[in-house]
Design a protein that fits this description.
The complex is a heterodimer of chains A (about 280) and B (about 220). By secondary structure, chain A is mostly helical. Helix content of chain A is about 70%, strand content about 5%. In chain B, a hairpin with an 8-residue loop joins strand 2 and strand 3. The chains are: A mainly alpha (about 280), B alpha+beta (about 220).
């Protein structure tokens, strides 16, 4: 007791120091959180930047349809889906490509395009929502970004895209441009893996279900693609996607597995016809 | 410490290594200071303690301090896996894992929920006192930030007078000049159209109205 009284100040000092260190740990945790988010944000920015130049290339290949009403309709459907089921940090853009080819593209960062040919083939809003949801799933799952190996795995962002694309030197820019060309090539020639497409299809169906759209319509749309695949109109689509049989069976499996056979959703045929009538 | 407000951190492997490094440095400094203090104390207390007892006490105290420090760190990195956040607007908590299930409540964007059980595409989650089922597409493990990144809009290629302004980002530069290598040849063989892209980016979108538009009958 005598000892304690004699060296009270030492003990107080030690105890206060210990507490100070806990305070630091707390502060450090905050800091780690902050750094993590800064990285996350930087990565997303780079992803948007990257996707932006990919979509500029898409628009270099196909002209954009400058019809504000029609784009607004597509955008309303797309944004309605993305606001509920997309990545909350992104703003999505939906455009129509003025070409008779049948296809839809998704560039990283939320740039989504549907061709005029594909819209002509569609019969109702559920099919449009399905196609947009499929492309949204590609963006949400970062399929292209992952396939290009810009990110090691899901949340390893500090060593991810920012590091690869962050360089300001010319060589870094060249590397970035090459990656960008690769991404564009992936959309136009090589396509994503079978698994990624199957995953995007399933996610699209899931989104449709959660929005209350008819599921069978999307399957019907896939079937209706069949006659065009061999011809020029959907050549790119057939090159970059797995066969219709594979996709159809994959979705049937998903429907049976999740007990969705009796699910009845809306088709919104009239609204679709009215808005997309004269393309 | 546990009585403080918990901050949830989602950590990656690289983050973890940096944090461990930092923690290690901190504990090294801390132990060094403690050792110094004890040495000073040992001088003072030489008459009252024998050296063996002091050494034992010293070791125990150092261990306790290091343990406490590490515990504080671990408590922050645990308890993260089952926490999810509501991604978007109009997320509905249902009684059964089915779209026909009765609606319990609507959850706003960013709400923290804790996953309890998984069944196919459905997750059973707990939010406050309510428990219910939600679609896996409606939740995310990453804390939700409402702030939208609209990078595209920041970039303006031309000012009113036609002079180039704010060529800050790389894509803007490439958009105007095209990237060239040392021989002056264009690197990318593909054509680009940034004007059309800007037109698209200018089209208005409104999340809440769009969600409403989807729910409206035709």
């Amino acid at each position: 007791m005598n000892l304690f009284r004699n060296h009270l100040w030492f003990y107080i000092f030690i105890i206060s120091f210990a507490f100070a260190s806990f305070g630091n740990a707390q502060e450090f945790r905050l800091r780690a959180h902050h750094v993590y988010w800064k990285n996350q944000e930087a990565n997303t920015e780079r992803e948007i930047d990257f996707g932006r130049s990919v979509s500029a290339k898409i628009l270099g290949k196909y002209p954009i349809l400058r019809n504000e009403q029609k784009v607004r309709y597509i955008s309303q459907i797309g944004t309605g889906i993305s606001a509920q089921l997309g990545r909350p940090e992104l703003r999505y853009y939906f455009g129509i490509l003025d070409t008779d080819e049948i296809n839809a593209f998704a560039a990283p960062g939320g740039y989504i395009f549907v061709t005029k040919g594909a819209l002509k083939l569609m019969r109702n809003e559920a099919q449009l929502a399905g196609v947009l949801a499929h492309e949204l799933a590609h963006v949400d799952q970062k399929h292209i970004v992952r396939k290009l190996n810009l990110q090691g795995f899901d949340r390893s962002l500090t060593a991810g895209i920012a590091q690869v694309l962050g360089g300001a030197s010319l060589s870094a820019k060249i590397a970035l441009e090459r990656l960008n060309d690769l991404a564009f090539k992936m959309l136009m020639e090589e396509g994503l893996s079978k698994e990624d497409e199957a995953d995007a299809d399933q996610k699209a169906l899931e989104m449709l279900m959660s929005l209350g759209y008819d599921l069978q319509s999307y399957l019907d749309y896939l079937q209706s693609l069949k006659p065009y695949l061999e011809q020029g109109q959907a050549k790119i689509l057939s090159k970059t996607h797995p066969t219709i049989e594979f996709r159809y069976n994959n979705l049937r499996e998903f429907i049976i597995k999740n007990d969705l056979e009796n699910f009845k959703g809306k088709k919104n045929e009239k609204r679709f016809q009215k808005k997309i009538a004269t393309l | 410490m546990f009585w403080r407000k918990k901050i949830r951190v989602t950590l990656t492997r690289t983050d973890l290594s940096t944090i461990l490094e930092d923690c290690f440095m901190r504990s090294v400094v801390f132990v060094f200071v403690v050792l110094l203090l004890f040495r000073k104390m040992a001088e003072l207390l030489q008459k009252k303690f024998n050296s063996l007892l002091l050494r034992k006490k010293k070791i125990i105290q150092i261990f306790v301090v290091v343990f406490l420090l590490s515990m504080d760190f671990y408590s922050s990195s645990f308890a993260k896996e089952e926490t999810h956040y509501i991604k978007g607007l109009g997320a509905v908590l249902r009684e059964q894992p089915s779209i026909q299930g009765k609606t319990l409540t609507k959850l706003p964007r960013g709400t923290e929920v804790h996953a309890i059980e998984t069944k196919g595409i459905w997750h059973k989650v707990e939010s406050g006192e309510k428990q219910g089922w939600i679609l896996r597409g409606q939740i995310t493990k990453v804390p939700v930030k409402i702030k939208k990144l609209t990078l595209g809009q920041k970039i303006r290629l031309n000012s009113a007078s036609g002079r180039r302004v704010r060529l800050r980002t790389y894509t803007a530069v490439v958009g105007v000049k095209g990237l060239v290598d040392s021989k002056g040849e264009k690197i990318s063989p593909y054509k680009t159209d940034y004007v059309a892209l800007e037109w698209l980016e200018k089209q208005p979108t409104d999340e809440e109205n769009s969600v409403l538009f989807l729910t409206l009958a035709e």
